[in-house]
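Here is the promised in-class demo. Please do not try to memorize the tokens; focus on the logic of going from shape to residues.
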């Protein structure tokens, strides 16, 4: 099996995507609600990634 090498950012995006899919599927009843909630959750994950990334950048000095 080939190795998959991901950067930290790519791994974080993959985690955000997969987690959003699971949360959308298990928490909502209709397909439309699932899609909207999954996209919303993914957006929140990406926003948190950039926010925490900037905090770490600024805190590192």
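The designed amino acids, position by position:
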């Amino acid at each position: 099996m080939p190795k998959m090498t991901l950067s930290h950012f790519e791994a974080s995006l993959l985690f955000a995507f997969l987690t959003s899919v699971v949360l959308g599927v298990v928490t909502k009843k209709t397909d439309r609600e699932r899609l909207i909630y999954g996209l919303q959750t993914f957006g929140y994950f990406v926003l948190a990634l950039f926010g925490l990334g900037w905090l770490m950048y600024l805190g590192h000095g």
